[in-house]
Amino acid sequence: MTASPVSTGRTDLRPTRADRVRQILVTVSEIACLLGTLVGIGVFGTRVEESSGGSLSADATLLAPTGTAFSIWSVIYLGLFAYTVWQWLPSRTTDPRARATGRLAAASMLLNAGWLLVTQQGWIWASVGVIVALVLVLGLLVVRLTEVPGRRDPLDLIVVDGTFGLYLGWVSVATAANVAAALVSSGVSQEGRGAEWIGVVVVLVLAAVVAAIQRRVGGRWAVAAASAWGLSWIAVGRAADEPRSVLLAWGAAAAAVLVVLATAYFRRGAGAGAGAGAGAGAGAGAGAGAGEEHAEQRRAEQRRAEQRRAGRAVDDRAVDEQR
Fold it and tell me: Where is the composition biased (Basic and acidic residues) (predicted)?
């Protein structure tokens, strides 16, 4: 009996034309994303927080994270660059995960650049459409990472799982902030206790959405870290900056904690499920092995019985000849 092969995400296939097209597409998209970033930070255009009439600044709405929160983009952009290099490595060119995620990664980079360009024009509601598309693409990408087995080495875990987990977690929070900015820019009031309670409901719903994502993808710490990061800085902003709201500060902090707890729960569930699956597989394998061993014993007994009958037949012929 032989052991079942375990997929490691390796492949010995030669690169195809589709692989090369995918690699080039990712690289061009990364360049576009980089150029969009230079526009967004004010090198070639207006800084994001100053665009769209200031609607996207850190103190524009109740759901805006304070300025420090946006430093996570540096980590995400570095990860996207690393991913672009990673997918060109000879050992990763035909990697199943590179094939499964390449076009989605390229789409996320183009949408990122598109969002920055749209906000430059002051098209705040168009930016909502772009960021919603971005979060959907990232959600599908992370699901793909969950479905396609990969190598469990630090390079892949950091460059692929880490980068896109952070990207998804942060953009999930940014989407809520973007919608709030669009509403306020359209004249929706955020004054009064009612607006604060609506903000609390929104951050709790956001935590529930992230928890649902975590249930689907088995609880990824990168997603949780970025989501909790964004929610925590919303809490800090409402506690220490305008528009001030102690109620929403506590609500956002609670939402951040809920995201972490949900992630831990679903990771434990995924681990238990994997353990149960392994146990069931081992039990089935043991049962199959026992059955095969029993059958072999029966075959051996049959051979010995045939040999004994053959031996008796020879003895009988010898006696007849002597007579």
Answer: 291-323
Q: Distance between CA atoms of 77 and 86, rounded to whole angstroms? A: 14
Q: What is the DSSP string of 264-319?
A: HHHHHHHHHHHHHHHHHHHHHHHHHHHHHHHHHHHHHHHHHHHHHHHHHHHHHHHH
State pTM to two decimals: 0.80
Residue 123, token pair as written in the block: 């098209």
CB 216 within 8 A of CB 156: no
Q: Cβ(88)–Cβ(26) under 8 Å?
A: no
Distance separating alpha carbons of residues 121 and 51, to the nearest angstrom: 8
Q: And the tokens for 51?
A: 């665009």
pLDDT single digits (tens) 161-186: 999 999 999 999 999 999 999 999 99
SS3 179: helix
Domain ranges, ordered by start, for the chain: 17-275
How confident is the model over 260-286, as pLDDT tens digits? 999 999 998 766 555 444 444 444 444
Q: Which two tokens stand for residue 250?
A: 């506590």
